[in-house]
Amino acid sequence: MRFAIEALAARVRGEGLRFVGVPTSVGVAALAHEVGLTLTELDGMLDLAIDGADEIELGTLRLIKGLGGALLREKIVAESSRRFVAVAGADKLVERLGTRAPVPVEVARFGHLATARRLALLGAEAVLRRAADAAPFVTDGGNLVYDCSFGAIGDPFMLERSLRGVAGVIGTGLFLGPVERALVGMPDGSVQVLVAVTRPN
Asked: What pairing do the DSSP bridges indicate for beta strands 84-89 and 181-185?
């Protein structure tokens, strides 16, 4: 997303491109302010969401997001947008979600150990995310994150329903809604454009 934000700022300066953005994290907001982009609060529908991804499933363009810790805000913005485009490097492409990245699950602080036990009953290896100082990582919303490894996920929709059914779970990093396209940076510096095709689970 840093490259995307800097590229947008260059178009604003060089071409007079005009738009107002909604940041999905404190870090994104700081970078956008630094390069001179105009920001606002989320109020109603957005025309376009552009966001990074930690895994992109080939074919469906379903995503795992949230390793940066802003999964709840990212999902709110994605679901409030008419169009959604993912940007990522080629190393994020997978045949099945869960192949390389865990599923981040944002949970309430209260009773989080009990919540983690419930996540484990769903088959997760649930690891509390920690900050650089070894203290529990706290999201911009003041919650905790468990990184849940399931291996390759056969039915992400069923997994999403199961996770959201656990008391204490606030949001997950499974982004299963329609992604219009993915812009993938290739090792040679080119950009590959992927569009979603439907396939059975």
From this structure: parallel
Region label for 34, one of left (φ > 0), alpha (ψ between -120 and 50) or beta (otherwise): alpha
Whether this prediction's pTM lies above 0.85 is answered by yes
Q: Which of 6, 41, 55, 74 is catalytic?
A: 74
Residue 43: φ, ψ to 5° = -150, 90
Please choose, from the candidates 50, 61, 46, the residue with its C-alpha nearest in 3D space to the C-alpha of residue 85.
50
- For residues 88 and 186, the answer to whether their CB atoms sit within 8 Å is no
For the segment 126-163, what is each residue's pLDDT rounded down to a tens digit?
A: 999 999 999 999 998 899 999 999 999 999 999 999 99
Amino acid identity, residue 20?
A: V
Indicate the domain borders of the chain.
1-41, 53-195
Instruction: Please confirm, yes or no, whether 180 is among the known catalytic residues.
Output: no
Determine the CATH number of domain 53-195.
3.30.70.260
Name residue 107's beta-bridge partners.
Answer: 144, 169
